[in-house]
Amino acid sequence: MTGKHPGHAIVRSNKSMKPEGQFPIPASEVTIGELLQKEGYVTGAFGKWGLGNVWSEGNPTKQGFNRFFGYNCQAHAHSYYPATLWSDNERYELNNKPPVPGHASLPKGADPTDSRSYDIFKGQDYAPDRINDRALAFMRKNKNKPFFLYYPTVIPHVALHVPDEELKPYLAQKWNDPPFTRAKGYGYTPHFTPRAAYAAMISRVDRYIGNVLNLVKELGLEKNTIVVFTSDNGTTHLKLEVDYDFFESVKPLRGLKGSLYEGGVRVPLIVKWPGKIKPGSVSDYCTGFEDWMPTLLDLINAKTKAPKIIDGISIAPTLFGEAQPPRAFLYREFTGYGGQQAVW
Predict the structure, then answer these.
(1) Do 297 and 306 contact (CB within 8 A), yes or no?
(2) Any alpha helices (H) in the chain, and if so which ranges?
(3) Could you state, in order of their start, the residue ranges of all structural domains in the chain?
(4) In the chain, pLDDT over 90 holds for what percent of residues?
(5) What is the pLDDT of residues 266-309, one digit of tens each?
(6) What would be the CATH architecture of the domain defined by 32-231+268-343?
(7) What φ, ψ does residue 218 adopt, rounded to 5°?
(8) Which of 42, 60, 115, 210 fits as disulfide partner to 65, beta carbons 3.0 to 4.6 Å?
């Protein structure tokens, strides 16, 4: 967002604020949204924002985004059947009555071997679907202008909430899928078939990405659109909910989410730009999120507009298949789990 690594970024954790949301990014920070706005782009953020609630200076509409729709709180985003989302600065009501919590246990006396015991964790109005709809609407509305779509999708983060129609094909797999009952009192919400649910959530993400890519093509924008797909971290350590050994989520890497070993921080990066980036090309260049501010500016011929004091570098040469000097280092730190630092 700011071109800075975790050692220089202002926001370094999910410190909660009242009444909701997290510690806000200050108005003095320059974001990629603000820089792209100055270059004539309409900017939209759809999904999860954890850099300041609507009453703070970290509000996305004050941080370079013309449009925002989604969750403005990390904790609120643990449920995918909530009562409300945020549409810019207004609450948007969903048809979930009652809403489904992100953290809860089976009712007292419920039979954990009966699939019907888990029905209380199903809602009617799936928030990720609404977010995808609004992202597509943003694209249609701005098809004749340069636009920047920032889409931090909330799934497949737990809780294991997913519509039945997405779940059904995986139930037919007949995996040895022991229920997640939350019997130990921690975790998110119980699910009768957690492996199938997680696979279904991945499929739902694939569907959303397909919707975006298909619309880019339908609007005739494919050759003039840069698509970047990546992830924020490795898989969760909550194995009873997401069985990372079964899915081989990080194999053969060491570590999981919350760790600075490669399993926690090494993630896929896919970039598509027809006619500019060679399809199917692969690079082992070492890069990080801080590189995307200068890279995007470089790709739109605005390289000199990047702030002077940032940690990121442009990886445009690598994307175009050209030789590029290796980075001097990558620095990461994480304040959780006793504090960790890593330098590569």
Answers:
(1) yes
(2) 32-38, 127-141, 164-171, 194-218, 244-247, 262-265, 292-299, 316-319
(3) 32-231+268-343
(4) 92
(5) 999 999 999 999 999 999 999 999 999 999 999 999 999 999 99
(6) 3-Layer(aba) Sandwich (3.40)
(7) -60, -35
(8) 60
